[in-house]
Amino acid sequence: MRDDRLGDILLAKRLISRSQLESALAEQRRHPERLLGNLLIQQGILSHAELVRIIVSEQHLPMARAVLDRRKQANQPVDAHGVPLLRVPPEEAASLAMAEGAFPSPIPLPRLEDFSMTSETEKELTADAFIAIEADKLDEARQIITQGLTILPDSLPMRYLTAWLQSMDKRVDKSLLILDKHFGTSSDNASALWLTAWNLQKLNRHKEAADLLQRMLRRRNPLQGWYFALAYSLDELRLWKKARQVYTYFIRITRGENQYTWYARQRLRTIIEHLEKTEP
Fold this sequence. Notes:
Serine Threonine Protein Phosphatase 5, Tetratricopeptide repeat; elongated
């Protein structure tokens, strides 16, 4: 990533001030062989974890296993620019979809931008935990989160990540309890709402999941995966016409082919055939 672009991104995300950037750029002019990111770290303006997170986010670098990378697309805003084009051969998309088993809804990946942190320690620990999760190093993430809650017992990012790991460990009820206590369904936190809806689906509470997802989709910049998740719950509720409409829209807004578009196309065929037989 070019240094001028990195500087603009850091300013836009309010991770550094204009004066801090100008100071680092002045130092770089004196030592042109040194990278801006390294200078900011050495000056204590930016942590290494924050720098890695920014570069990974902006460059869409694959930090996790292939399936997890493909799931990332479902966690992108619908109108996001530069979403990776995830083309998957049809036979691979089919095998990925079938590997999901009876529950195909995409995993809600944590999004660091949904959380505000009050201290440098919280920022660094949260960024480290998010990076470990993106790299699919869940044991490492658990250690970081345990450390974080010991130091910062009231940290909302750490509470959310605890709920996320509980859900991944199939302790869905416990995950929901944590989310309800610290966030609730009236929360503005997109990550917490997405995980809540996913947990409700796991428990076959599709009416509650569909109601929550419909409220979420009225937010600014809804995520692509929310549309698939809503279609899936409507499908499970046998609301065929609504499911058909949302599956169709999800396919239209998703760039490339993946296991979710494959599943949506299969369900669309079945739903259309069913409606043709049952409707006059």
